[in-house]
């Protein structure tokens, strides 16, 4: 894809005003990074889902993949024996596993196709 040069004459004063507002917003945001706000916390307990699907850290990858497929998950939390979060598995992490499964199905189909052809050839002779 070839990018064209920007024609600055097509921008109007409103665009410049919007840009200056976003710069002011960034200034305000940087003020919140002050030390006085570093110890401020928000209690998210009322909003957190306490029944989230999770697996132990020594859980089978194959079974985790089945859980992903059957429940339509995007993320799967991994916990240790104390139920402390030690990681998260995403769809992207399991994409390679999915490819291996599909290739296995393709190879199994092609093997059965070849064996059927071989049977047909031996019957014709």
From TrEMBL:
Annotated signal peptide: none
Keywords of the record: CBS domain, Chloride, Ion transport, Repeat, Transport
Any Pfam family hit: CBS
Listed InterPro entries: CBS_dom (IPR000644), CBS_dom_sf (IPR046342), Cl-channel/antiporter (IPR051280)
Keyword Transport applies: yes
GO function term, MF aspect, one: chloride transmembrane transporter activity
PROSITE patterns documented for this protein: CBS (PS51371)
Domain of life: Eukaryota
All copies of domain CBS, residue ranges: 48-106
Protein name: Chloride channel protein
Species of the source: Trichonephila inaurata madagascariensis
Native organism taxonomy: Eukaryota, Metazoa, Ecdysozoa, Arthropoda, Chelicerata
Gene designation: clcB
């Amino acid at each position: 894809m070839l990018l064209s040069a920007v024609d600055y004459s097509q921008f109007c004063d409103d665009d410049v005003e919007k840009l200056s507002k976003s710069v002011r917003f960034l200034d305000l945001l940087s003020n919140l990074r002050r030390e006085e706000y570093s110890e401020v916390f928000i209690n998210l307990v009322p909003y957190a889902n306490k029944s989230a699907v999770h697996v132990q850290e020594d859980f089978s990858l194959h079974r985790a993949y089945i859980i992903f497929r059957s429940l339509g998950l995007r993320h799967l939390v991994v916990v240790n024996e104390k139920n402390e979060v030690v990681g998260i598995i995403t769809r992207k992490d399991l994409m390679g596993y999915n490819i291996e499964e599909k290739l296995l199905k393709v190879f199994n189909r092609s093997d059965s196709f070849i064996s059927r052809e071989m049977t047909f050839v031996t019957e014709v002779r």
